[in-house]
Structure prediction request, 377 residues.
Amino acid sequence: MAKFNSYPFWTARFWHGMRLRDWLRLLGSQKYRIHPLRWPLAATVTSTTVLNSLGASAQAMWYSKRIRETQLERPPVFIIGHWRSGTTMLHELMVCDERFNFPTTYQCIAPHHFLLSHWWATRLLWFLVPKQRPMDNMKAGMHLPQEDEFALMNLGCPSPYRRMAFPNESPVDLEYLDMEDIGSRPLADWAHSLLWFAKTLSYFRKGQLVFKSPTHTGRVKVLAKLFPGAKFIHIARHPYSLFPSTMRLWRALDTVQGLQLPKAEQDEADRQRREDYVLQCLERMYASFDEQCSRLAEDQFFEVRYEDLVQHPESTLASIYETLGLEDFEVARPAVSSYLSQRKDYRANPHPELDERIKTSIQDRWANYAARYGYEL
Prediction:
């Protein structure tokens, strides 16, 4: 936990990308329950959101018509799967192919104005983004691929990720994990924001978009309707690895991103609350996943297990390209091989042994997931 707490208040958080009105709405939703030690962080975010609001107005004035008229070259590719299932590794492998386009960390932090600010902000403000992610030591940086869910959140969309701002409160926006029980107007607003972001990325740089967000796992039906012909790559991982890794993820992000100090890990009630949250999210995301994917054409859907991807990354990618009808993989192979060579010394964080209580919960609540992907519990 000491490592998580080492982030200074001025280091960029994802809240820095909001407009003022969305930031105040987020704070107001939890009655401004900010811990005094996080007041400096809240102050820096507030000042940044004012600039974001001005930047958003300027970009809209200069680029709104051009963005609206931009057409996507090809339907996007969506990498989906539960958190810590290997979506980041797969995303970085895919975008080794320079023929693909993807949202960067800066573009997700500043979705309102990156067309205007990208060229100078990524050069002058590089120090605001740490070199490694807090949960797994993988590389981080403004130019690296990032989850578009953060861009949607900063564009003002409801998102389960908003819970990270107030980690001691009840989870929010869980209905956006499966897009059920959402009114037609909020759903249309959400879809408009994602389409607008996709068009803005396509205006900035040509190439077939590759998105990656675990939150999209339960949204296949909505995404397939919004982007006809979209491709989906789903990755699974053994539940006994998935669970502790996801617990570490939320501990890290709650500590780094939160406007509250997360309760001590020794707090039994808080730990069980987080455990239930992890279990509940997978259940909700996968409740209708198979049914949604069954509507896709054969060249729209590919599944892989994390363990197989790690063992055979290049042959797995070749199969993905062939099944989904993407470009010739052999063109991308040298870049993929180079990436794998640079990453050969990477070691994942070890996870603590699960106690029998947790194993029983996983067996009871994630049994369908484990059976679907051939994992023994």
About this structure: The domain at 4-372 is CATH 3.40.50.300 (Rossmann fold). Strands lie at 77-80, 100-101, 208-212, 231-236, 301-305.
